[in-house]
Amino acid sequence: MYSVWLTEDEQRVWRDHLTMTNRLQAEMNRQLQRDCGLSLADYDVLVAVDEQPGCRISVLGDRLGWEQSRVSHQLRRMSDRGLVERTGAKDDRRAATVALTRTGRNALRTAAPGHAELVREVVFADLRPADLRAVGRWTAGVLQALSRRP
After folding, report:
1. What band does 144 get if pLDDT is binned at 50, 70 and 90?
2. Are 60 and 67 in contact (CB under 8 A)?
3. Which one-letter DSSP state was computed for residue 75?
4. What span, in angstroms and rounded, lies between the C-alpha atoms of 133 and 140?
5. Which residue ranges does the record assign to the HTH marR-type domain (predicted)?
6. Number of domains into which the chain is organized
7. Would you tell me the crossing angle of helices 68-80 and 40-51 to the nearest 10 degrees?
8. Is residue 22 part of a domain?
9. pTM of the predicted structure, to 2 decimals
């Protein structure tokens, strides 16, 4: 039986994880804004759509882990800036799909090297291969546990 409270070690690791995640997202956002005028949300959408062109907007939300309203607002802002285009799905007129525009593809190409450099420098530079595999197993396990929740 589990205690109601996290153990001291669990609490320390959990709080450090939350702090790390928040600080890393803020730093990625600053780097993207400074280097190419994109937000981290813009970049996340560009990457997801690039990996699955013409995906349904509902699928995009699932991939990003975002609520549908957040996806819709983000796509509207990005569409207004010419980064993505929304169209009706060919097989279902009620479903919309999203694709990168030429401007969106160029923005992604411009943003990716600096973003990858930051992530490599801050997250992976001091990580040993065995540690990388352990972190990979841990994150995969958490994601799998979350996917089983209603």
Report:
1. very high
2. no
3. H
4. 10
5. 10-150
6. 1
7. 90
8. no
9. 0.89
- Residue 62 in any domain: the answer is yes
Q: Is 27 contained in some domain?
A: no
125 Ramachandran zone, left/alpha/beta (phi>0; psi -120 to 50): alpha
Give 100's DSSP letter: E
Instruction: Please name the amino acid found at residue 58.
Output: S
CATH of the domain at 131: 1.10.10.10
Percent of the chain with pLDDT over 90: 87
Establish if 56 belongs to a structural domain.
yes
Q: Distance between CA 47 and CA 112 in Å, rounded?
A: 9
Give per-residue pLDDT as tens, 54-112: 899 999 999 999 999 999 999 999 999 999 999 886 666 568 899 999 999 999 999 99
- Please, which residues have CB within 8 angstroms of residue 49's CB and are 6 or more apart in sequence? 55, 60, 84, 98, 99, 100, 104
Residue 54: which domain range? 36-147
